[in-house]
Design a protein that fits this description.
The structure is a single chain. The protein has about 375 residues and is of the alpha/beta class. The protein folds into four domains: about 35 residues; about 60 residues; about 170 residues, 2-Layer Sandwich (Nucleotidyltransferase, domain 5); about 55 residues, no CATH class. The protein has eleven helices and 15 strands. Strands 2, 3, 4, 5, 8 and 9 form a six-stranded mixed β-sheet that branches. The protein has a five-stranded mixed β-sheet with strand order 1-15-14-13-10, with no helix packed on it. Strands 6-7 form a two-stranded antiparallel sheet. A hairpin with a 4-residue loop joins strand 13 and strand 14. Helix 1 packs antiparallel against helix 2, helix 4 crosses helix 6 and helix 5 crosses helix 6. The longest helix has 16 residues. The chain is elongated and about 90 Å long.
């Protein structure tokens, strides 16, 4: 299996007009592999599958579950305990010779699963090329003043800009904002130029090491990525101007909203920079943006699932920490255990079998 860096290298080489045979030689893989990743349309992260080990209790689990499920209509004082189930297995199942702790652990886990309450928590720019950066402004969210980040995507050719508000600059924020903007404009920029590596990777010397989620997303959408050189303001001047312009003209007075998702939708609908004339070309921005739109790549057949999966260990209260500032609740019975977290617009926490909690991520706060 190839790394995401190799996959993106294959797809970029094909975009640049190289033949499959040439790409295969350069990457040192066979042509079938090259064709496979050129045809692949969905690069969304896949939740890891935890394979359960075989247990001597497996032949009896269906019977135990039947007894426990039947208790749902029984007075709580007359429901099966682990001890009673163990006694019945010994009496009613010939050959049963397992220990009580084995039965007790399964009963406890099954009851926790079924009874659990879920907590939902200046350069020449061609049409179709865009710049990306973050700005910062204050907002009233549900009456509370807080400082938020807003993703800014600008098209230097037309001077058209789009914005999405988030609680941070994480990879999930970047990918979710880009995906929502792509869907709104109906296509994908061919090149995205980033101010720095914030949210999409980290810079080590002169090299930017992209995060896995961002690599998957750009493979999914097929855009090329360029990072600005440090202290090279001319490479990103358009988007920096857009960051300041929207803060002065759209975020004064301080905006107030109840739902950031609803506000982000209205933010794209209500922007009026398309009605202005381009500051140099003396043509309507909306007219120039149609040239940008004509140069966009088509949207992929499948939407990208913006999320990451990681294992975290809950503390004694069943709470987990996903970053330096936020704790999220699972359930007390998960205290001290490892749970699988899906971080996205709404992160999900998974036990070994099923989802147990959900809350709102920093990107939506």
């Amino acid at each position: 299996m190839l790394t995401m860096s190799q996959i993106n290298e294959i797809r970029e080489a094909f975009e640049l007009g190289k033949k499959v045979s040439q790409i295969a030689r350069e990457i040192e893989v066979d042509e079938k592999t090259v064709r496979k990743y050129l045809k692949q349309q969905d690069f969304s992260p896949v939740m890891p599958v935890v394979e359960e080990r075989e247990s001597k209790l497996d032949p009896y689990k269906a019977q135990i579950q039947e007894w426990l499920d039947g208790d749902s209509n029984v007075w709580y004082k007359q429901r099966h305990t682990a001890q009673r189930i163990y006694d019945r297995l010994k009496a009613e199942c010939p050959g049963f010779d397992l220990s009580y702790p084995t039965v007790q652990r399964f009963v406890k886990a099954y009851k926790a699963k079924t009874q659990r309450t879920r907590v939902f928590q200046e350069l020449v720019w061609h049409p179709g090329e865009a710049q990306v950066d973050f700005g910062e402004a204050d907002f009233y969210e549900q009456g509370q003043l807080s400082r938020k980040k807003y993703l800014t995507v600008s098209f230097p050719h037309s001077n058209r800009g789009f914005y999405q508000v988030f609680g941070g600059e994480t990879g999930e924020c970047v990918c979710q904002g880009l995906q929502d903007i792509f869907a709104y404009i109906g296509g994908v920029p061919r090149v995205l130029v980033f101010d720095n590596a914030t949210g999409v990777g980290r810079r080590v010397g002169d090299e930017v090491r992209e995060a896995q989620l961002f690599q998957q997303m750009r493979a999914h959408y097929g855009f090329l990525v360029r990072f600005c050189n440090p202290n090279a303001g001319h490479e990103k001047g358009n988007v920096e101007n857009k960051v300041g312009t929207v803060r002065r003209n759209r975020f004064v007075p301080i905006p107030a909203y109840d739902s950031v998702e609803g506000y982000n939708r209205s933010l794209m609908r209500e922007l009026t920079d398309g009605e202005m004339l381009h500051y140099k070309k003396n043509r309507p921005v909306a007219e120039l943006f149609e040239e940008d739109r004509d140069a966009l790549k088509p949207l992929p057949a499948y939407p990208f699932n913006v999320c990451r999966f990681l294992y975290v260990t809950a503390d004694g209260y069943g709470k987990v920490r996903l970053d330096a500032h936020h704790f999220y609740s699972t359930c007390p019975e998960f205290g001290g255990t490892e749970v699988l977290n899906k971080t996205a617009r709404e992160p999900h926490l998974h036990g070994k079998i099923a989802a147990v909690a959900r809350t709102t991520a920093a990107l939506a706060r």
